[in-house]
Specification:
heterodimer; A: mainly alpha; 14 helices; globular; B: five-stranded antiparallel sheet
Amino acid sequence: MFAYLIRKLGVIAPTFFGVTLVAFVFIRLLPGDPVLLMAGERGMTEERHAKLMAEFGFDKPILVQYGVYIQDLFSGDFGTSIITKQPVFKEFFTLFPATMELSFVAICIAVFVGLPAGMIAATKRRSVFDHVVMTGALTGYSMPIFWWGLLLIIFFSGILGWTPVSGRISLLYYFEPVTGFMLIDSLLSGQSGAFKSALSHLILPSIVLATIPLAVIARQTRSAMLEVLSEDYVRTAKAKGLGRGRVIGMHALRNAMIPVITVIGLQVGVLFAGAILTETIFSWPGIGKWMVDSIFRRDYPSVQGGLLLIAAMVMIVNLVVDLLYGLINPQIRHRD
Amino acid sequence: MPLLEIKNLSVAFQTAGGMFTAVDKVSLNIDPGEIVSVVGESGSGKSVAMLALMGLLPWTAKVTADVLKFDGKDLTTISKKNLRSIIGKEMAMIFQEPMTSLNPCFTVGFQLSEALKIHFGMKRNERRERAIELLDQVGIPEPQKRLSAFPHQLSGGMNQRVMIAMAISCNPRLLIADEPTTALDVTIQAQILELLLKLQQEKQMSLVLITHDMGVVAETAERVVVQYAGQQVEKQNIKGLFTEPHHPYTAALLDSLPERAKTKKLPSILGVVPGQFDKPKGCLFAPRCKYATSLCTSTPPEPAGTDMGRALCHYPLKDGKPTNYPEQEEVA
């Protein structure tokens, strides 16, 4: 198991390096530069522009800039935002709990709805339920997130007036963040109605964010389950006289989970990508919205640092998934 | 009273090209403590008939039978719950592929003690003791250690022993072994057969041995049913079958045994078992039969009398020659 972990870490290092390179190059490929955007419509003289560019070190050859960036990274410096003058690392982790909370709730919805839906669809193949789930999954998977989000806002916030349109909690409530998770903090604050307010703010964005992973998980679970149900060992389980629940819920599910776990891990990456759109639509003060703002401002250090940290999060999640995978599948565990 | 009574069991599968009859009116009685072998090449519906009996076929299968009784209980009308209390307990089955028939995610001990928990409600330590005893019975060394092993850590032969241990865990009265040695090495094959026979003797259970290996039949069975393309073509006791086969298919199977070969080149039966789309109109074996006449290719035969092994043939063999065979050979 230890060797397994070491091997996985060996893959992570080069990936990390690749992310720095991609983030660094791509943000600079965008037209415009941060100084011009800061000046806005007033514009500025070329001299002043050159002076400011030199101040941020953007006048040096790109390779040198990259060298400096990597050097700083090795000393634990993720750079400083050129707009807010705050360390990128600090900004990221101020906003991260909001995204974390949203993503966590979304992945829970996706797993706890998608998994049973896929399972039931597989065991009741070609039933009405199966068709409804599969059609729904395909629709959910094909829908543009921002459009779906807007539809929900129009219906639940606009027409029904059940949920707020944006933010994490009503302005009526204020408390110091303890965990950074609004649902927990609101409970800790002891203010009546705070939790309800936080929940009503969270519900729509998390449903929107959960839609694609839910669809993918449901489809994957169904197909994995169908495959496993025709395996010889499922027949053996039935031949023992085991009940249907035990055959499906234990013998089949344990095996079907192996590919599904991988997919869930991969969906976490998709989730962060989806968070960018979702947070923008719902004005959710998280990493996604911050990344979009940083890109619009050509805040190079923030984009570079933010992407790197997001990549790190995704890699950590995938590492955990790999370890889980080993726990579920004894054939992998014993390979070392 | 026979332990198992099957009369006119048919199984048809729903396929894209319509219904396909895999088992066609098969009948079989098995007495307590008896060993019966079902022989036939791949695709002759041997396994399907037994899987139908156990209720293990997929939903695309349509099973019909005039009589399907185990120990006097009618299996055609039995509830699923009651059927589950019979299968795995009184009627158990061993499958062809030991490597894929055990669940890769659970330990041998867990899989072995599951039936004990379900059928007898045994406690954890009772189950453990019984599991060790079972592994010992099927000749697995160091049974305590093997309990925590996963199937992929054991060899094919060992896994088949585990399968056998699982099948006999509740002391079944009928054990169905579906080609239990096919996937194994020749040396292991003999060991597994020996083990099955030993257990059958000890526990006085009935044994149905499905195989395509006439050699295995010769060593084990008391009675033999020869099956071809879903139909039973001959039923005889072991001695009669080997000294005087009545159906040309049985004769051809025996001729292809190396130890019985009279010529230098080993004879084989040309062609394959007909499938869904090339099913002959008359006798199903006619296209491969050296005695086939125009009658054979046009009209399905009726089974002959018991003295002729119930051979499903227009001209059942006697002393190696077809009876009532037309003088003028109108071979199709």
